[in-house]
């Protein structure tokens, strides 16, 4: 599991020096209905004739590469850049830090069969 802090001091290209950056996870934008490929596909799909293009079904990867979006917190800069990190199944942003030598605590306030 990868746990990344919500702020990070790193180099800002616009400021030309290390600055604190706000870290968020990159998210894909909504697909445009007016992109050329989408228009061609919709035109071809319309009418009778079933599915016209192949549907990919041989996915090889089980994870995606995590992309961080870094935004400079300097008020008159606010430049943004992307930073790709390695693949991982579980990604957490700003979670609790692990302490060395401590036993992980579990929530034991669960009720069993309706009795406390």
Written account of the structure:
By secondary structure, the chain is mainly beta. It has a domain of 61 residues: Nuclear Transport Factor 2, Chain: A, CATH 3.10.450. Helix content is 9%, strand content 32%. It contains one helix and six strands. A four-stranded antiparallel beta sheet has the order 2-3-4-5, with no helix packed on it. The radius of gyration is 23 Å and the shape is flat.
Features:
two-stranded parallel ribbon, Nuclear Transport Factor 2, Chain: A, mainly beta, 116 residues, flat
Q: What does the average pLDDT come to? A: 92
**Category from helices, strands and their pairing:** mainly beta
Please summarize the sheet with the most strands.
4 strands, antiparallel
Beta-sheet strand percentage?
Answer: 25-35%
Assign an overall shape.
Answer: flat
**Order of SSEs, N→C?**
EEEHEEE
Radius of gyration using CA atoms only: 23 Å
The end-to-end span amounts to: 33 Å
CATH topology of the domain at 1-30 and 62-92: Nuclear Transport Factor 2, Chain: A
Number of strands: 6
Q: What fraction, in percent, of the residue positions are helical?
A: under 10%
Indicate the CATH class of the domain at 1-30 and 62-92: Alpha Beta
Low-confidence stretches: none
CATH architecture annotation name of the domain at 1-30 and 62-92: Roll
Keywords: Ribonucleoprotein, Ribosomal protein
Organism: Octodon degus (Degu)
GO molecular function, one term: structural constituent of ribosome
Protein name: 60S ribosomal protein L36a-like
